[in-house]
Design goal:
The protein is an alpha+beta fold and 79 residues long. The chain is built from three helices and three strands, in the order βααββα. It has a domain at 2-37. It is elongated, with a radius of gyration of 26 Å.
């Protein structure tokens, strides 16, 4: 899509919709290209169960609290 400076000012709604459609927008000033607007990345929404660390300790029969205590360890080393 090509847009002029006036389009940016008066038709911003149309430009934002074009960005939502993943279109690149070329900005023109006096008929010459001055820049390009590129759509931002959309965040991938993954579920917790799809995370690689989900269920990594499922073989262990400890409770969550016991596992967290094991991971954290003691605050100070006893003499």
């Amino acid at each position: 899509m090509k847009a002029t400076i006036l389009d940016l000012r008066y038709k911003m709604k149309h430009i934002l919709k074009a960005l939502e459609r993943n279109e690149k927008i070329t900005i023109l000033y006096h008929g010459k290209e001055k820049g390009i607007l590129i759509p931002g990345r959309k965040e991938k929404k993954i579920q917790v169960k799809d995370h690689p660390f989900f269920g990594m300790n499922k073989e262990e029969k400890k409770s969550v609290v016991e596992q967290m205590d094991k991971l954290r360890g003691p605050r100070y080393n006893a003499f």
